[in-house]
Amino acid sequence: MKEFKRTLVTAALPYANGGVHIGHLAGVYVPADIYARYLRLKNRPVLFVCGSDEHGVPITIRARKEGITPQQVVDRYHNIIKDSFRDFGISFDIYSRTSSATHRETASQFFKTLYDKGAFVEQESEQLYDEEAKTFLADRYITGECPHCHNERAYGDQCEKCGRDLSPTELINPKSAISGSTPVMKKTKHWYLPLNEHQEWLKKWILEDHKEWRANVYGQCKSWLDMDLKPRAVTRDLDWGIPVPVEGAEGKVLYVWFDAPIGYISNTRELLPETWETWWKSEDTRLIHFIGKDNIVFHCIVFPAMLKAEGSFILPDNVPSNEFLNLEDDKISTSRNWAVWLDEYLTDFPGKQDVLRYVLTANAPETKDNNFTWRDFQARNNNELVAVYGNFVNRALVLTKKYFDGKVPACGELTEADRAVIDEFKGVKDEVERLLEAFRFRDAQKEAMNLARIGNKYLADSEPWKVFKTDAERVKTILNIALQLVANLSIAFEPFLPFSSAKLRTMLGMNSVEWNRLGALDLLEAGHELGEAALLFEKIEDAVVEAQVQKLLDTKAANEAANYKADPVKPEVTFEDFEKLDIRTGMVLSCEKVKKADKLLCFSIDDGSGTPRTIVSGIAQYYQPEELVGKTVCFIANFPPRKLRGIDSQGMILSAVNADGSLCVITPQREVKPGSKVS
User: Fold this and answer.
1) Contacts of 270 (CB under 8 A, 6+ apart)
2) 186, 240, 333, 656: which sits with the fewest CB atoms below 10 Å from its CB?
């Protein structure tokens, strides 16, 4: 394997059109931060670069809706995103933005260099044009009816209801999102990056030279390269972005996909104006891109083609992309607000950054889509961080305070049990390193937690609180070993849980962290005075989690209500057909659940005939039986009897279907006698 002098770590630029949610964290920023922190602990030269992606159509759409400028939009979200990352401990060396003067200059020069080298092709094409607003329309500026699910608010690039990718010409009755008018086709000129001319070297570089890349990355690249790559536009007609720096390009800006990855370069240049080229143009620099799977093609095919065309830049050595994280078994969606936003989490769970970091890493979607649930969040906190890691640390420190006045006791003669624990601990450094170097962060964190399990079990088996009564010298050895293990945990967890690791080092009275000391059992000298013990993690109660689940359910209900559209009216029927139904009212005399049938309730109804009528109805999910007793309901009286779960049901109770699919029994607004006809 090639030796590198330094490592440049980039994290995908978050789009400054909203905050950061847990899907972003799990997919990109937590693994990138773990890796950067690990390299720093190893004393390896590393630069961790990111910034806000601030151009493109969605930002202009939001600005128009809010009646403000695009710059005001990105200023707001850039600060929200930057503050959230800082508060969460994402340790960027620089977090800048693509609306900066440095980026504008860098991106313009990059385009001009490729333009002067003849790396682009010029093409004319027809695009939709708003004659009232006198502007070409980006796909997101066109709305209409989805041809697949008939959502009337689909965009020109995607229907957010059914998830299908679309082109503007597929929409039924397309309209301009700017003026509401019907757009027309009009010719326009743009510059394109001819990816087809890069196909052969890309095939060798990826498919032959980088077989070590993750299967999802390699597979998606192979899928694209097995097809013929096509030229891709690098400019577009828009008034927000970096102007195309050539004559005859008035009213055109750099396409955001071309502009954004150059942000990695411009942000490095902003941080290190004199030496940035060492990090981007030296062959002994290793470039690692951390991204989500929706960015694989851009970072593995398109951006490398741009860099290769320019001629002086290095190419990425690895692109450890994650899959997607779902939320409570549903796809995270910013438009539906189906997300756990980082700024809200930090408000609701102050001081618990590491809990979320731990859970997101434990559930990291490294090889396939994974799922975040609040119940799992609670369970991992209570059963792992509190009951294993925190419990071990607390026991070791509290017992040392109790028996030895908070000073590390000297280690005496070792028993077989002591040696067994030490042997288990010996390979920790090599194994965690191996996993981190392979970008297997989930397994690396699991290995670190296994160390806590070893220590917790050692204390439980050794029972120093009992042994002290008869053999205080033996307890010195037990607690010395336990404290050495605790000190090791403060190092092993440093890349994963930086806040709790710093807190633990304060409790231990440790001043520094040295990765090369991980696995050593002399980290704390005999007689070393420990700091004050405190709980490393706190139990999360059911009520706290239930409140978060309810917040999501409220969001889902609000979305369903906002997007509710009544089902199409059924084919016409005659009045004579309607008259055949005998719909009546009846009072519920009794109601009970049907045994072994979760959805069924059995009603006894006074229908005015003098003999109670039995009706079985599938509404048990929406009502408790006692809620319905005494109510007047509407039912169809002349359906033939039907046996359900061995009960003869003599009719059907009428219900309305809500937007969320729940059922609501139909009742008269005024008092009516049982048996009254509905007409």
Assistant:
1) 94, 96, 100, 102, 103
2) 656
Calpha distance 459→482 (Å, rounded): 7
Same domain, 397 and 473: yes
State which residues form the domain around 654: 575-665
Pairing of strands 235-237, 252-254: antiparallel
Does 522 lie in the same domain as 463?
yes
- CATH code at 655? 2.40.50.140
Last residue of a domain, one of 528, 546, 564: 546
Residue 14: is it exposed, middle or buried by C-beta count within 10 angstroms (0-12/13-18/19+)? buried
Q: What burial class does residue 502 get, using C-beta atoms within 10 Å of its C-beta: 0-12 exposed, 13-18 middle, 19+ buried?
A: middle
For 89, left (φ over 0), alpha (ψ -120 to 50), or beta? Answer: left
pLDDT above 70 as % of the chain: 99
**Which pLDDT tens digit goes with each residue over 5-41?**
999 999 999 999 999 999 999 999 999 999 999 999 9
Give the C-alpha separation, 339 to 555, whole Å: 10
H helix or E strand, kind and range, residue 7: strand 6-11
CA distances from 299 to 33, 84, 140, 381, 644 (A): 19, 25, 23, 35, 59
The mean per-residue pLDDT over the stretch 288-307 comes to 96
Same domain, 433 and 511: yes
Write down the pLDDT at residue 140: 77
Identify each DSSP E strand in 225-284 by its residue range: 232-233, 235-237, 252-254
DSSP string over 515-580: GGGTT-S-SS-TTPBP-----SS-PPPHHHHHHHHHHHHHHHHHHHHHH--PPPPPPP--HHHHHT
Checking if the pLDDT of 611 tops 70, the result is yes
Q: By C-alpha distance, which of 95, 82, 89 is closest to 356?
A: 89
Cα distance between residue 65 and residue 214, in whole Å: 41
What lies within 8 Å, CB to CB, of 592 at 6+ separation is 601, 602, 625
Q: Which whole number is the average pLDDT over 240-251? A: 92
Does 107 reside within a domain? Answer: no
Which 8-state DSSP code applies to residue 384?
I
> Residues 595, 493: one domain?
no
Rounded to whole angstroms, the Cα distance separating 592 from 621 reads 13
Provide the β-strand partners of residue 236: 253
What is the number of other CB atoms lying within 10 angstroms of the CB of residue 302?
22
In this structure, the answer to whether residues 655 and 582 fall within a common structural domain is: yes
Total Cβ atoms within 10 A of residue 131: 13
pLDDT digits (tens, 9 = 90+) for 368-378: 999 999 999 99
Closest to 313 in 3D by CA, of 290, 342, 279: 279
The residues with which 235 forms a beta bridge, in sequence order, are 254
Please check whether residue 278 lies inside any domain of the structure: no
- Which of 600, 629, 631 is CA-nearest to residue 616? 600
What digits encode the pLDDT tens for the residues 332-354?
988 788 999 999 999 999 999 99
Indicate which CATH number applies to the domain containing 525. 1.10.730.10
What confidence tier does 599 reach under pLDDT thresholds 50, 70, 90? confident
Please tell me the predicted confidence (pLDDT) of residue 425. 87
Q: Which of 530, 546, 562 is the endpoint of a domain?
A: 546
Q: How far is 92 from 94, CA to CA, in rounded Å?
A: 5
Residues 127, 139 contacting (CB under 8 angstroms): no
